[in-house]
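Comment on the following before class.
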Amino acid sequence: MLIVPLGPARIETVVSNSRFIASVDYAESVEAARGFIAAVRREFPDASHNVPAFIVGGGASKTEFCSDDGEPSGTSGRPLLAVLRGSGLGDAAIVVTRYFGGTLLGTGGLVKAYSEAGRLALERVIRAELAEFSRLEIALPYALYEPFRRLAADSGATVEKEDFAEIVRMVVATPSGGLALFESRIADLSSGSVAPKRVKTFMARRSNSFSLAG
């Protein structure tokens, strides 16, 4: 099970008049991580440094990256990546932006400042589970609409789309691990008259409340 950011987080600290702004977000691919880094650099184009790090994937397919972005070698990028590793998060990108305040921090001071800014931002991240979901198309009579909505909520499924015509047509995403049980409960609810159509499987973030994040 891979734990990932549910959404973005940001904090700001000041160390000896230098501002450190740490920004974190979910990155499902190396391209997405690099896109996030580029977006932060565009947001803070006048910053002294925008120090990035990311971890994408897990196991043998994990990709890691960091850069000192002009800071003395080893004082910012590697410490930031170490903090990200220690957080237990995957598919995560972080950038610590620095506005130099006129006071040199020294090697140890820079390591501490970047590490602390990264740690505080990562502590603020809301965590989610990256899980496989199945998307289903379901057609049911109006009499079953409200009972089905309750069943879906109880099963951790998310209703993505609804169309109300002569019958109700819905698109629902449900955790693949519980798909067989969900389909069985639908059959019980409808006395076998409703048969979900499996459309596709996909990976998505799931919070503790079972809500999906795109």
